[in-house]
Design brief:
Layout (H helix, E strand, L loop, with lengths): L5 H5 L3 H5 L5 H11 L12 H14 L7 H11 L4 H14 L5
Helix pairs in contact: 4-6, 5-6
Amino acid sequence: MGVWKPRHLLHDIEKPFLRLFMNYKKVQEFHRRHNAHHLEYPGQRNWVDMYVDWECSRLTKISSPRNAVEEANYRVGNGTMSYEDYCEFMRVAYKLKNIKL
């Protein structure tokens, strides 16, 4: 993939500290609303970081068995990702995977 950066390893660093003050669901909601690699983020999204996050989650979470492209397909299918966001994400995914359109 060739896109690893130190920020990818530390992108959830605030979660353990927030857990001292909030329950996990609140921490998860806060993280998703304040980090550009999540669909819930209200501003400009970071599609590369989202790709890395989704690609790695299948290795770290039992509840997320899909790779990044499968996750995008799943989310657009169930309505949690807009078609416009899906198209933008897939442009980045294809570039990262060196797939020619």
